[in-house]
Amino acid sequence: MTYKVAALYQFVSLPDFRDLQEPLQAICAAREIKGTLLLAQEGINGTVAGTADAIDALVAELVNGTLFGGRLDNLELKFSTAADMPFQRLKVRLKKEIVTLGDPQTDPTKNVGTYVDAADWNALLETPDLVLIDTRNQFEVAMGTFDGAIDPNTARFSEFKDFVKRQLDPTKHKKVAMFCTGGIRCEKASSYMLSQGFEEVFHLKGGILKYLEEIPQTQSRWNGECFVFDERTALGHGLTERSSSSAQQRDSHIDD
Predict the structure, then answer these.
(1) What is the pLDDT of residues 110-163, one digit of tens each?
(2) Is residue 215 classed as helix, strand or coil in its secondary structure?
(3) 3 state DSSP class of 67
């Protein structure tokens, strides 16, 4: 049996996020969906798996159903497949942030950098004096990254602020481009950098997963594999499953 995997997120104001937890848990449980979904005042984030019909029904409920009332109208979605169920259980958790940066002033619902579609990413990388930053954690970067990308050497995303303060200067680094697995970390990072005075900040819409899904390997600037936070461990071009020796480094915290 093949399972459909959905990675999703959206920064959107959800002041009632606590009230959404139990109904969302029930919707997923009724369809035997497993994985993790995070809810916070700033939005929703997670990766879940189930049968194709179950995942399609969940997405329809999120986007068009009464639970969220049409607020998830810009839900970022990436679909892939797994030969085996990649999660052991279902978790719908309440969080302070759907991805933990730890800066209360950063608000991606109000201000973010410029989205760059996967089809336009290679051209952006040719921009003179562009500073390209991989916003993921060290062990993720070690498995694969884009040519010329800076590794901030972070263990958790919350350390990204310190990296910016140490190594970047808005008066010198005029054009900054960032990327991450599914788009959520670099979207929040772009909001933070704009608040710190950086003028031109770009981020890869849909993240590495969207790039690997849409860009043929013959045209790719990606080297290696993309770590994912489930039992598959890594994905390659076309979002195909890859085995990896880094499996033991898997972190269960999808918001890091």
Answers:
(1) 999 999 999 999 999 999 999 999 999 999 999 999 999 999 999 999 999 999
(2) coil
(3) coil
Q: Strand 3-11 relative to strand 43-50: parallel, antiparallel, unpaired?
A: antiparallel
3 state DSSP class of 208:
helix
* CA pair distance 190, 198, nearest whole angstrom: 9
Identity of residue 233: T
Active-site residue identified among 28, 180, 186, 226: 180
> Distance (Å, rounded) from C-alpha 131 to C-alpha 175?
6
Q: Comparing C-alpha atoms, which of 84, 101, 87, 92 is closest to residue 187?
A: 101
pTM for the predicted model, two decimal places: 0.88
Quote the tokens at residue 53. Answer: 């019909």
Question: Could you give phi then psi for residue 160, rounded to 5 degrees?
Answer: -60, -35
Active-site annotation holds for 180: yes
What is the widest separation between alpha-carbon atoms in the chain?
Answer: 54
Q: Is the distance from CB of 49 to CB of 82 less than 8 angstroms?
A: yes
Q: How many C-beta atoms lie closer than 10 Å to residue 230's C-beta? A: 23
Candidates 18, 28, 15, 36; CA nearest to 62 is: 28
**Taking Cα atoms as reference points, which of 253, 230, 236, 73 lies closest to residue 156?**
253
| Cα–chain center distance at 201 | 17
The answer to whether the CB of 116 falls within 8 A of the CB of 124 is yes
Which residues, including other chains, have CB under 8 Å from residue 100's CB and lie 6 or more apart? 156, 157, 158, 255, 256
